[in-house]
TrEMBL record:
Keywords: Methyltransferase, S-adenosyl-L-methionine, Transferase. Substrate binds at residues 198-201. Residues 126-205 form the Methyltransferase domain. GO terms for molecular function: peptide chain release factor N(5)-glutamine methyltransferase activity. The gene is prmC. It is an enzyme of class 2 (transferase). Signal peptide: none annotated. It catalyses: L-glutaminyl-[peptide chain release factor] + S-adenosyl-L-methionine = N(5)-methyl-L-glutaminyl-[peptide chain release factor] + S-adenosyl-L-homocysteine + H(+). This is Release factor glutamine methyltransferase. Residues 17-86 form the Release factor glutamine methyltransferase N-terminal domain.
Amino acid sequence: MNGDGGESRAPATRAALLRSAADRFAAAGIPEPAREARLIVKAALGLTDADLIARGDAGVEAGLITHLTALIGRRCNGEPLARLTGQREFWSLPLALAPETLVPRPETEILVEVALAAFPDRAARLRILDLGTGSGAILAALLSERPNAVAIGVDRSEGAARQARNNLETLGFSGRFGIIVSEWGEALEARFDLVVSNPPYIVSADIDALEREVREHDPRLALDGGADGLDAYRAIASALPSLLAPGGRAVLELGIGQEAAVATLLEAQGLPPEGPARPDLAGIPRALLTTAMPVLPSCSKKRLGTPSRTD
């Protein structure tokens, strides 16, 4: 009891808040409620895993509890955790998000793996182009693995372009990249060794049937692939012949069931894919690789071995 005759209450502890968040997430049907609770408590209270383990009994001030409670409520109402924290890790790199950027997905790391396998020399001096760069996740991964590479990221959204620039600068890639606001490759005259893209590929009519976290919180511009989901692939395929250097390679992320159609678009531009697309962990063909034909050196008859006349 306190001096006024009222009952004194101990402040809520970190551990108690963690349990409460996990219980609410479980009741709301959120997958992996304990993991999500740990992440949201850490973000809201500014803690590390070590803080939660070593000092779980520490009290939390009322203002932070109010902030955490609001975030938990938003998560239970379907807002993605990455939108609440404003960050998502991709390729073990922390990326800040903006309303105009997609939340990077684990399956997009398959695209990065295919691109790196296409250029296995870590010291390669690559010129990389990312069409529809969004948060800059793919460029960040590639620049981190190929320290002599330079890159250009293109996006139709000014907000996404701004966020990509901020992320790449924060990660220490200043001086190695440029960001352009443009419709795909229209503003570019240079040629690149590697072109990558995770374009919008959802059929327009299917967007309203997507899971709530996607349809309500991801930017439609980054989702909508047109009436058949292939609008962006058409634009990219038609641009690739003028964007790829001789022998350059392109890797495109695919939506479900799109491999054959995208392969046909590439073949029509003289860029047949190199075998089947690499599948993701669910077995869905996810990353398609193609290569521009190298330019053969012009050869004189003498170089071809035509015998010269002797008298």
